[in-house]
Amino acid sequence: TDTTDSTTVTPQQDGTYKIPTGHGYSVSVSDDVEGYKAPDAATGTAAGTSATVTMTYEEAAGFVDLGLPSGKKWAIGNLVKDSQGNYAIGAETDWGTYVSWGNIIGHNEGEGYNFDQTTYDSTPGKQVAANIPSNDAAHDIALATLGSPWHIPTKEDYQELYDNTDSEWVADYNGTGVAGRKFMKKSDHSVYVFFPASGRYNGTALNFRGTNGYYWSSSFNSATNAYNLNFNSSSVNPQNNNNRRNGLTVRPVQHLPN
Fold first, then answer.
1. DSSP 173
2. 2: β partners
């Protein structure tokens, strides 16, 4: 846009956009490349015979590339919900919001939500009798709240994470008092994702925080159970089994275009 004349500049036959010397310009870029962050808008004043503006898309923030065989990238933090009901990827040490399997509404500590069977029987998740597809925004809380390409991991995603990283228990992550487990890139341990030991809800009781991590997958096991990542200070089970009504945390994963 030629800001001096407040007009939209049209491309020339060779595809360039010409702005008269001395005129101000503004360049805006739409965020229409899935999984990538649009560059910041550029402004300036055309000088000489031409002005060249180069804008580069960057991969969307909020994830870590561990060099996994599938190319999938893990969020740096858990899915969190604020007091207005807005969702985002939290900081590394945020416990996260808790959700029963197959549902897209999370519940934070202190809300008083009851993760019991009676409550679960009235939720959309109760009706699911198969794996949750990565395009199912009605039952995938990561996709529903963050949008594509984020989704809940499958049990195979957790297995890949476990098989292709080095893992260690951290009792006090960076002096924050938060315990959990680091999954580190095998060739470079400075590249890692940290999973807090967020515990799990059973009914209205939050259990095992600080000693165990429980993270939902999208993988179905039975009418009552689904798969999840489970870990503590001595072991990791990438395909653990948990009651679907329980409140577990979610660590989103994405698969960006090559």
1. G
2. 7, 25
**What span, in angstroms and rounded, lies between the C-alpha atoms of 165 and 193?**
10
The pLDDT tens digits for 67-117 are 999 999 999 999 999 999 999 999 999 999 999 999 999 999 999 999 999
Pairing assessment for the beta strands 180-185 and 188-196 based on DSSP bridges: antiparallel
Contact in structure between 79 and 106 (CB atoms under 8 Å): yes
Instruction: Give how far the C-alpha of residue 18 lies from the chain's centroid of Cα atoms, to the nearest Å.
Output: 41
Q: Is 202:221 a contact under the CB 8 Å cutoff?
A: no
> What is the pLDDT averaged over residues 27-40?
56
Burial class (CB in 10 A: 0-12, 13-18, 19+), 35: middle
State how far the Cα of 192 lies from the Cα of 91, in Å rounded to an integer: 14
Cα–Cα dist 244/231, whole Å: 18
Q: Which amino acid is at 44?
A: G
